[in-house]
Design brief:
The protein is mainly α. The protein has four helices and no strands.
Length: 145
């Protein structure tokens, strides 16, 4: 983009941006975070238009039409995101291997391993306690007496 095109773009943008922003805030009041995104996209579209084809014959109409198209695209995008979020929140997920019993088998293995570890630890503690009970009282550490 040359300096003349840049100047045309800046002048048009400075003239129409405040009014477009007001409309955008009203149309996207439920999603105020999206206003800046929409305004950037409109600004970018204007600069690309000027760079490729020059200044539009009716810049105000061109800007408002482009603005409305971008707003409509944003509405669709927001709707799709909300729809996906609702589907995720409302869906009961099933693990694919649950149906053939692999989940139950995996749980049993984990439980068995956990129980085995607990039994081993219990046996070690029992052995330690038995060994301490068999020792003579004078050979016990002072903290245990």
């Amino acid at each position: 983009m040359n300096s003349i095109q840049r100047e045309i773009c800046e002048n048009l943008w400075n003239e129409y941006e405040p009014q477009l922003r007001k409309i955008c805030r009203v149309k996207l009041r439920s999603c105020p975070d999206e206003v800046d995104d929409v305004m950037s996209e409109v600004s970018l579209a204007l600069c690309k238009q000027i760079e490729k084809f020059g200044k539009p014959e009716k810049p105000k109409q061109w800007l408002y039409a482009t603005f409305n198209n971008i707003i409509n695209l944003k509405y669709r995008e927001i709707y799709k995101q909300k729809e996906k979020q609702e589907n995720i929140e409302n869906k009961d997920f099933e693990l694919p291997f649950e149906q053939n019993g692999m989940l139950k088998q995996t749980i049993r293995i984990i439980q068995f391993r956990g129980l085995s570890r607990m039994k081993k630890q219990h046996m070690r503690h029992q052995k330690t306690l038995s060994a301490l009970k068999m020792q003579k009282p004078h050979s016990m550490p002072l903290s245990v007496r």
